[in-house]
Amino acid sequence: xxxxxxxxxxxxxxxxxxxxxxxxxxxxxxxxxxxxxxxxxxxxxxxxxxxxxxxxxxxxxxxxxxxxxxxxxxxxxxxxxxxxxxxxxxxxxxxxxxxxxxxxxxxxxxxxxxxxxxxxxxxxxxxxxxxxxxxxxxxxxxxxxxxxxxxxxxxxxxxxxxxxxxxxxxxxxxxxxxx
Length: 179
Prior knowledge:
The chain is mostly helical. Helix 3 packs antiparallel against helix 5 and helix 5 runs antiparallel to helix 6. It is elongated and about 85 Å long.
């Protein structure tokens, strides 16, 4: 009998094993292996919808704070704010959604607190830029969320994210300018 060295696993086998081990490590993360009560009792789609509605509500608060701090911008912001309210209603699991009309609290032009906790910038252009950044950030976040969303919710998030990107553009464009 002749001696033959033991066969080595192929590179493909080694890489597949390493990928599997890495995937298992990512799935377990730093947890102790027990599922949390939230993961078990609340379905993924519901959690995603609740987060999306909460984010839309915060954005509505930013619109309201900006319109209160800069009353001259209220008419320009009204249709965008109404669209955000419609998005919140569409994302909501219940019929109770944020109101489509902005709340009025008599603007004085003074810096009102924004939803983020900070004041609305004193200059209207800066306030619009901050609002556009909020729209853009939420749009990007929703685009990222598409990967884990169930079918119908993914389509809705894609549509709402696209609207947010358009809102960001409209908030920073020069209305009435001709090219």
